[in-house]
Amino acid sequence: MRSTDHGKTWSKPIEIDNVRGLPRDDNGAVEGFAGAVGPDSALYAVWGDGNHLVFTTSSDGGVTFAPTRNIIDTAPIMFSVDAVARANGFPQIAIDPRGGPKGGRLYVTWADYRNGEIDVFCFSSKDFGATWTPATKVNTDPIHNGAEHFFQWMAVDPADGSVNVIFYDRRGDPRNRAQTVTLARSTDGGQSFQNYSWTDQPFNARGGFIGDYNGLAAMNGRVYGIWTEKPENITTRDTVIRIGVADFSTPRASNSSPSPKANLK
């Protein structure tokens, strides 16, 4: 649905999928929708459908949409994570607004378990979704190490074009039950990512529900993240919301690490 009067009134909803999903998360639901708008007001949309991601576009402000198509095969994006009540790798899409009237690259992130553990991935398109690059693994720890990475979210900085991804990270816990928060950042168009530890103290959700996603925004080299934690000193089911700010805008000496403070190898 769309509004042309700043949200005062809305059009009737239209269905934009070509193939309907099944009614449960664990057996092929159509879910995890995300959209991005280019400088020319074109709308780009992505969602998960079973073992692939689906993509469509609208060039008339959401009045009509192009036929949907699968853009990449994935392992299922609904999965179980130890000590967490529910987890997923729903995709996100973002556009670099630089690059002309239509903008620059499109980026899509998601998480799946193609490597035996859950990893975060990103790929991009320089022709507005006509073709896509091979997938790049966002978390930089070795594959097949058993560490889970989930609830990723992405933001492209419109000022510098950097691709920023937040996710929960279990590479520091051999038992694969406690997680910290990691910020991954790419300054080469999503070809590679550096990983930075945004939190030092891991937490174990102990079977609690910590949400379906985190959040991220970026502007002028500053990255703003929001996520859920369950502190170790809380014995109830209560969770808390944390907000972090990472500043990459200030020039630093070549031997210093940008914020956040630890660069994960």
Task: Report on this structure.
A five-stranded antiparallel β-sheet has the order 11-12-13-14-18, with no helix packed on it. It is globular. The protein is mainly β and 265 residues long. The protein is 0% helix and 38% strand.
- Give the averaged pLDDT, no decimals: 91
Task: Estimate the helix proportion, in percent.
Answer: under 10%
Largest sheet strand order: 11-12-13-14-18
Main sheet record: 5 strands, antiparallel
H and E order: EEEEEEEEEEEEEEEEEE
**Structural shape:** globular
The separation of the N and C termini measures 44 Å
Query: Helical region count?
Result: 0
Which blocks of ≥5 consecutive residues have pLDDT under 50? 253-259
List how many beta strands DSSP finds.
18
- Beta-strand percent range: 35-45%
- The value of Rg in angstroms is 19 Å
Find the structural class using helix and strand composition: mainly beta
In short:
The protein is mostly beta strands.
Write out key terms for the chains shown.
0% helix; single chain; 4-stranded antiparallel β-sheet; mainly beta; 265 residues; 5-stranded antiparallel β-sheet
Describe the secondary structure blueprint for this structure.
Elements: E1 30-37, E2 43-49, E3 52-58, E4 69-73, E5 78-79, E6 87-88, E7 92-95, E8 106-112, E9 119-125, E10 136-137, E11 149-156, E12 163-169, E13 180-186, E14 194-197, E15 215-219, E16 222-229, E17 240-247, E18 262-264
Antiparallel strand pairs: 1-2, 2-3, 3-4, 5-6, 7-8, 8-9, 9-10, 11-12, 12-13, 13-14, 14-18, 15-16, 16-17
